[in-house]
Amino acid sequence: MPLPQFITVEGPIGIGKTSLARAINQRYGYHLLQEIVEENPFLGRFYDNIEEWSFQTEMFFLCNRFKQLTDISNLYLKQDQSVVSDYNIFKNTIFAQRTLHKTELDKYLKIYDILTSDMPQATLIIHLNASVETIMNRIAKRGRKIETNIDPTYIRDLRDDYEMFLERYRYLHPEVPILQLDGDELDFVARPEDLEYVFRMIEETMNKEQLEHA
């Protein structure tokens, strides 16, 4: 019997991760896991003053994602049910390395390593990327109040961080396919034909038997 699949969708803020994860959920019947964002009580203050509020923000995300993934593993993956998530927990290290001072980062990474040592690993990573202009336009379009003060430079740095991280990840985990999609060329929310293209790319990356094992 094929193993359950665990697809994670990743990329910078506002790129369309949740929209694509929901579409995969509806298409293939995978259980949908969505990250907790607006419930983070530190996030608004973080965007106003990254240096002061980064550690509290990142620790809140880490603890909540750890709890979510533990539940997903026990309730679905270990019961042979496939899952699609709008994040991969490795994103915690990307954000932390961008925002934390070295002493805080060292402590944070030790906690991260302990919490994630036995977490389920993705069987497919979908990486969404786009220009800073496209990302900022999509952030503005969704209209989250806590995101009104995001600096475009922060978004640019985050895009670069994702690219570098995934290059290393591909080298260290060659068994995990990474499907990269260009958000400047594709708008799978507004254009159904683009969404169908994305589904075809997913199906080419994973075989049909794996996808249908929900």
UniProtKB/TrEMBL annotation:
Keywords from the UniProt entry: ATP-binding, Kinase, Nucleotide-binding, Transferase
Pfam families per the UniProt record, alphabetical: dNK
Domain called Deoxynucleoside kinase: residue spans: 7-205
GO cellular component terms given for this protein: cytoplasm
InterPro entries (alphabetical): DCK/DGK, Deoxyribonucleoside_kinase, DNK_dom, P-loop_NTPase
Binding-site residues for ATP, renumbered to this chain: 11-19, 138-142, 186-188
Active site residues per record: 80
UniProt superkingdom: Bacteria
SUPFAM superfamilies noted in UniProt: P-loop containing nucleoside triphosphate hydrolases (SSF52540)
TM regions (residue ranges): none
UniProt GO MF annotations: ATP binding; deoxynucleoside kinase activity
Protein family (similarity comment): Belongs to the DCK/DGK family.
Designated name of the protein: Deoxynucleoside kinase
